[in-house]
Design brief:
Length: 275
């Protein structure tokens, strides 16, 4: 059950809504509070003693109302499995795409993201845009080109220095501009793109784990597995068993152009930054 928001002035949840929410939660139905919807989820008692997030402007109000909740303003969304909360409107879209990816796989989530013209995947651990300053004019042209360049080279090292050099910026200025444009660090962004492409390859090809590790820039299967398990709490092999699209594997013949898939799957990120 999804509570997409909550009306101001944030009145307490009514018994008329609390009862069906509690019944659904007892049956094992996940409860999702997007943005200010986290207030209703908290009022229902599902977040006591747990971590949660809501729109950054309303964090103090939620903390005062439910002091037992551990609020984290540094994340986009928090998924406990049975209960999920998200930050503001853009983060709510990220949370919904996370749910689509979780239950239907990355290929479906990417198609939905393209139709919405948003980034196909942003991890919940990224920071909210709290009073985000406007990007400098140079970023509007330099950063999208840099992202396209990097997405076509996920199998290379892509160090901060190499990215900064490609963007023709000093390391310090590049890191600052990159965070303004994407909301995360260069290293984290590169890792997320590699993991996202790896998930797509696990779902849509019969490539070996070693081949996917090399194609996505992890260098070795060991490093790939460690990063994959750390991010998704499952192994690449287990993920493939759950989400493999066998019809897609048959059509692709076990491969395809990895670089082109990287560019297509993340073109929405570039489009959003250009705007």
């Amino acid at each position: 059950m999804v509570i997409p928001s909550w009306p101001l002035p944030l009145s307490p949840i009514s018994e008329r809504l609390r009862a069906p929410l509690s019944a659904a939660h007892s049956r094992g139905t996940p409860i999702v509070g997007l943005c200010l919807g986290a207030f209703a989820v908290a009022d229902a008692g599902f977040l006591d003693g747990r971590s949660a997030v809501t729109h950054w402007e309303m964090m103090p109000a939620l903390a005062e109302r439910h002091p037992s909740i551990r609020l984290d303003e540094s994340v986009l969304y928090i998924d406990h499995g049975d209960v999920m909360t998200s930050a503001g409107t853009a983060s709510a879209i990220d949370a919904c795409l996370h749910l689509v990816r979780k239950h239907l796989g990355s290929a479906v989530a990417t198609r939905v993201a393209r139709s919405l013209v948003v980034a196909p995947h942003r991890e919940g651990g990224q920071a909210q845009y709290i009073e985000r300053p406007l990007a400098e004019p140079a970023t509007d042209t330099a950063m999208p080109h840099l992202l396209e360049w990097a997405l076509g080279r996920l199998d290379e090292s892509l160090s901060i220095d190499s990215l900064a050099a490609q963007a023709r910026m000093s390391r310090r200025n590049f890191v600052r501009q990159f965070r303004l444009a994407t909301g995360t660090t260069p290293a984290r962004w590169v890792l997320e793109q590699r993991l996202g492409e790896a998930r797509t390859l696990l779902e849509t090809t019969d490539w070996s784990i070693d081949a996917i590790a090399v194609a996505c820039g992890f260098g070795s299967a060991v490093t790939f597995r460690q990063n994959f398990v750390s991010s998704f709490a499952t192994t690449p092999t287990a993920y493939r068993k759950q989400f493999a699209d066998h019809s897609a594997i048959g059509r692709r013949g076990g491969g395809g152009n990895t670089t082109e898939r990287c560019r297509r799957a993340t073109s929405a990120t570039v489009s959003r930054i250009r705007r």
